[in-house]
């Protein structure tokens, strides 16, 4: 999907097709897992922009009361602590439900991938991801 930066003038003319697709996907999902890197101790602009588009209209946002889980990885030692904090704050403001834990913030991710850097190879990280996914699946049941 290709997004324009959120702009109320563009929104007034109708959502771009990519925004409509995003909103439909979120609306139809039982829950949403946001997996993001961290750039310069924060969330990537494209993630914040997607949430801004999805948050509209404010009274009918598809984010309200939608279960979310946050995950991420970065080459830094702290993983995506600050990025997830910013994303969590945005989602809480929009009345989304964010799974409190377990958390997935994979630091030094480059040391945990296979040789061609395409998959996680670190067994401890794989187990944490499996636990995270199982917890999210169970947690979403509270909102059906």
In short:
The protein has 144 residues and is an alpha/beta fold. It is 40% helix and 12% strand.
Quick tags:
alpha/beta, 40% helix, four-stranded parallel beta sheet, 144 residues, 4 strands, single chain
Overview of the structural elements:
With 144 residues, the protein is of the alpha/beta class. Helix content is 40%, strand content 12%. The protein has 5 helices and 4 strands; from the N terminus they run H-H-E-H-E-H-E-E-H. The chain has helices at residues 8-12, 17-28, 45-54, 81-93, 123-140; strands at 32-36, 67-73, 97-98, 104-106. Helix 4 (81-93) links the parallel strand 2 (67-73) and strand 3. The chain is globular and about 50 Å long. The model has no long low-confidence stretch (mean pLDDT 93).
Distance between the termini: 28 Å
Radius of gyration: 16 Å
Order of helices and strands: HHEHEHEEH
Q: Count of helices?
A: 5
Overall shape: globular
> What is the number of beta strands?
4
Class from helix and strand fractions: alpha/beta
Largest β-sheet summary: 4 strands, parallel
The stretches of 5 or more residues where confidence is low (pLDDT under 50) are none
Strand content: 5-15%
Mean pLDDT: 93
Summarize the amount of helix as a percent range: 40-55%
């Amino acid at each position: 999907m290709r997004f324009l930066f959120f702009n109320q003038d563009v929104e007034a003319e109708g959502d771009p097709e990519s925004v409509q697709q995003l909103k439909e996907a979120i609306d139809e999902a039982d829950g949403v897992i946001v997996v993001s890197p961290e750039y310069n101790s924060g969330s990537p602009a494209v993630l914040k922009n997607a949430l801004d588009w999805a948050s509209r209209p404010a009274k009918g946002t598809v984010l309200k009361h939608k279960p979310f889980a946050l995950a991420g990885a970065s080459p830094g030692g702290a993983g995506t602590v600050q990025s997830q904090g910013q994303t969590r704050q945005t989602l809480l403001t929009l009345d989304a439900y964010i799974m409190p834990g377990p958390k997935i913030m994979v630091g030094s991710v480059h040391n945990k991938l296979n040789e061609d850097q395409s998959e996680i190879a670190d067994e401890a990280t794989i187990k944490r991801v499996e636990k995270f996914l199982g917890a999210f699946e169970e947690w979403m049941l509270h909102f059906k």
